[in-house]
Amino acid sequence: MKIVVCVKQVPATTAEKRYTADLRLDRAAAESVINPLDEYAIEQALRLQEAGAVETVAYLSMGPESAAEALRRALAMGGEEAYQVTDDALAGADQWATARVLAAALDKLAPDVALMGMSSDDARGSLVPGAVAAIRGLPLLSYGAELQLTGSTARIRRLTASGFDILEAPLPVVASVTDQVGEPRYASLKGIMAARRKTLETWSLAHLGLSSEDLHGAALTRVVEARPPEAKAPTERVENLGPAEAATRIADWLTARKLI
Amino acid sequence: MSHRTTREHDELRAIVRELATERIAPRAAEIDAGSEFPWDLKELLAGQDLLGTCFEERHGGTALDNVAQAILVEEIARADATTSLIPIVQKLGALPILIAGSDEQKARYFPRLASGEWLIAFALTEAGAGSDVAAMRMRARHDGDDYLLTGSKRFITHGSIASLLTVFALTDPEAGGRRGMSAFMVETDTPGFSAPRLEHKMGIRGSPTAELNFDDVRVPAANRLGDEGDGFKIAMATLDRSRLSVAAQAVGIAQGALDFAVGYAAERRQFGERVADMQGIQFMLADMASQTEAARQLTYAAAASVDAADPDLAYWTSCAKLVAGDTAMRVTTDAVQVLGGYGYVSEYPVERMMRDAKITQLYEGTQQIQRMIVARQILKRAGVSRAAKPQRGTPSA
Amino acid sequence: MSDDICFLAEFDGGTPARSALELAAGAADLARESGGAAIGLAYGSGAAAGAASLGAAGASRVVVLSDTDGPAIRLAAAAAATVGDDAPLALLAPATPNGRDLAAALMGLLGLPALGPVRAVRIEGGRVRAEQSTLQGTVITVSESAADAPQPVIILALSGTFTPLEGGSGKAAVTTAPPADAGALGAARIVESHPADAAVANLEEAKVIIAGGRGVGSAAGFEPLHELAAALGGAVGASRAAADAGWVPYQLQIGQTGKVVKPALYVGCGISGAIQHRVGMQTAENVVAINKDPDAPIGEFADLFVVGDLFAIVPELTAEIRRRKGMTD
Predict the structure, then answer these.
(1) Cα(C119)–Cα(C154) distance, rounded to whole angstroms?
(2) CATH 3.50.50.60 fits A2-208, yes or no
(3) Residues of chain A with pLDDT under 50
């Protein structure tokens, strides 16, 4: 049984980020980490491997050269091999192009489960798992709090507005998991050292039998403007008031804004 | 970063920093307030293979170079000085074995030390023998093929929680400390050993500093390190290397204090402006930063000299410990100053960092001992021969 | 290719979800600008019966994809046929799991551009332009589909982005989509359903959210927050810390790995406002924070920051609000 976890390198949540002059995310500028939500997917895959349900855990990422860092960090957590799709034509790739490329790479790797995190931290896009499933013609098990594998099926437990559902589909599947999976492990020092010796293959679009034309030039959407958010009115602070007075002050504030 | 650090070093730093920020820093205040040894953090570090960095892979270690080991200690100390002592002392205790142990002795104990299953401590200092190591009184009497150790040690970090100790005692009291001292490995569950009291300290309060009693503790000859009489040499060679860890610790403490002071100054407003915009404060922060960086680079240079087995590595490590220790004290004191009144109260961490910093000027050779070592080296290089020391008990001619 | 604006309309038991009403209004607005029709794609139990009512919500016609419950992605083939034929200017989709998955499958099957979640959408020069808050709210971008990109552009919208019409009337013309083979996308099925004892309010649709964090201290500590929520007609949410501690069910978690909400009023009690929580609620229109710690990060981006003990202030606030609203016990 093989799982391929799709991993994206994104700017760290707390890092300073910006767009370049041609309105693309300046991926070099900020400290890059594994998309936090993908860490849960990695953790889920590794737990299944530890439980003996999965033999091979591999990683797949699409990004610039430096995205190899995210893959090395993933390999330091566990897993056997990693694959990176890098191509100049992919600069500024949007969700559809990403899904198209990942789908082609996943078809090549043919795992039992293509596993992803729920969404990515930078653009908060979340359409990649569904699109990959549609392109590959495979079932989708999304928003899983937990993934389970039996011989020929996959099951996820998904939290609903109240309670949870269990969804099932025959393998192979595309799946996405949420942070309910459990705390992702830290990479141990031995893991980091072992990661340096693990396979990391780089593929270009040509390797996948794709060309820039196939991807409509990598982006079906474009950013026409990037600006800082509107300056917010400064915070009104209320300090050193007794509870009853503070409550009155808040109620007045709400009334003034027609919220009560 | 220094030109001496590689991408692997930077990667290691990032990983340890993440761990330290998320898991160690939040515990620092309560470890200090409760004077409790952080067993949970010891397990965390052991689980991440961070206690085995000075051991070879065949013993279950990760054999990192000394620069990497310094970075590791620095990043942990930045979050909490007490916790940084866990990898520091694990190495300190093991150094005598690394230096003078046989392959069999190493194979016997290193796997458990590398995994963190056992803690090890270094028992050299006595009540009457601190800087003056040779004034040691603990005896190791022969008894068949064994030795019986009798005496007391004082100020032994982790002495009360270690499973193994490297202990120094006189096998030949007549020959005096320099030639009559031997080194032993002692398992602490041996009858006759006890750790009757712990010190109450200014800083590193979560680290147990113990008085150790040996009452005819039986040690087999197979646990002696090197030959009888090698003890003083082994102790000095150990300290020449272990003081590097203290330098790294001091750099980390200084950096932690500096980072906090900068963050505070950026938020605090007085007289209608940010404290960080006041030139007087900026000058203080600049001095703190440049001195910390200087201490850091010197520490890495010293680490590189140990890696290269330079004949004068002792000079380098002494310089590093001297500069870093004094820097840590100065930077943490200034950090308290930058915070003003808030720097004095335990709600903010800098007062703890200042209390923690002091020890780096005291242990593993006081700053005065470091100055003696450095002075001796530079005079030697200049061709100035050593003054004859008056012998104890002989009248001056 | 048309100037129509399509939207996904989720139904449950014959009633349209709030998202359906919001998107209908949004679609109607955009269709007025583009000169096309607002067309709903309805699915979920009772969709057939309820579809016509979307007329009052802003739709001119509705295509029913399915009348039963189930993962919406199984309807991708049916939706693709309708959307592919008409090729409208835009397709509005709710940022719910079902909405996202169905929209995602359409994006994959038809090779469509996609934007969102968006803060605002408008038609400019015949093209759909969407504003998004990206990089944890530090950069606002305006995007459009590329010149030669296919239509529609998929627009994901969080609840609260559009406002349902009030006082609308009329019925939409309803047709049924021709059946289509779902293929593998229909292979995932719900095999077990476990509703919880107490239904938990849908945070993503709440107009008022009272959120509790580490400062609340316990499950019982959430009681005053529930009272305040009841007085304001809102829902209770929580930070990750409170959910991890087991004080509230995970469905209430707001933040980077939980729900993203856009209420008109958000009141954070005992919440520090770390970035991981902030990204889940920073587009709330009005943010009030109550915290003992004067230096809590939430104090920097709240509209009103009250330093004090939430257990003393919240009950007083609840009482005051009830007084002003004339609520009696």
Answers:
(1) 14
(2) no
(3) 29
